[in-house]
Amino acid sequence: MTEKINITVLGAAGKMGCELIRQISNSSKYNLTAAIEGKNSKFIGKDAYNFAGSSMKGINISDDLINAVTKSDALIDFSSVESSLYASELCAQARIVHVIGTTGFNNKEDDIIKAAARHGTIIKSGNMSLGLNILLGIVKNASKLLSDNWNIEISEIHHKEKKDHPSGTALALGSFVAAGMDVDLEKKKVIDKPTVIEDEINLTKMKKGLVRKKGEIGFSSYRKKGVVGDHSVIFDGINERIALAHIAESRDIFANGALRAATWGQDKEPGLYSMQDVLGL
Fold this sequence. Notes:
There is one protein chain. This protein is an alpha/beta fold. The chain is 35% helix and 23% strand. The chain has helices spanning 15-25, 48-52, 65-70, 81-94, 107-116, 130-145, 168-181, 185-188, 252-264, 275-279, and strands spanning 5-10, 30-36, 61-62, 74-77, 97-100, 121-124, 151-158, 189-191, 195-196, 217-223, 229-236, 241-248, 271-273. The strands form two sheets. Strands 3-2-1-4-5-6-13 form a seven-stranded parallel β-sheet, sandwiched between helices. Strands 7, 8, 9, 10, 11 and 12 form a six-stranded mixed β-sheet that branches. Helix 1 links the parallel strand 1 and strand 2. The longest helix has 16 residues, at 130-145.
């Protein structure tokens, strides 16, 4: 593919939206077609490049998603559940690639995405990084080898502004654990409320005072200022512990993955894909 891929960024004023716009502005492969925010956003009218910290100018943040979709090859979406559901229908109608990094969907909302994927190419993942997707495969294989005498705890730390918990990535790790163990995650998961912390925390150790029943898959969430997104899976056995972790040091790893997904999806048939498909894992 020699021509640039025309990209619309939905959620353009958010942390990930700004990172995507910066990367697009520095790339010879992509062209920023539109930067979209919600109808009542205070950022409407601002120059998207300037807002993201890029030296380029010329694309103002807009709420006209319909017009943006008609001019794009792909929509990269780190927005809200409501916005992503609306965008999935528009992208399917326009036959453009929809890359969804939004998290927090319930089962009913996931079904809406699946319905849109019958007509459009959708790549949906709670985490777009290469390293995390490799971890998913490792976790699934490890889970196949362990007996039910091992306790499993999945932990995540995110910035204080993150609304949903556990994170989409943590839930993905849980689903891969459950798949490896051949159990139903919905019946096994136990979710704790998020804890706001100020000090560093070691995700490779079990939380003090934590009590889980045999066979449960536990989820612990922490919120800390400045954290991009850290995740771990602990397999806690008798006198031994396996701890697997992924530390995100910059949002550029997620933006890189999302752009890679947008490129990969250009020649794909309608369907619901994941970053595992994009990376061939």
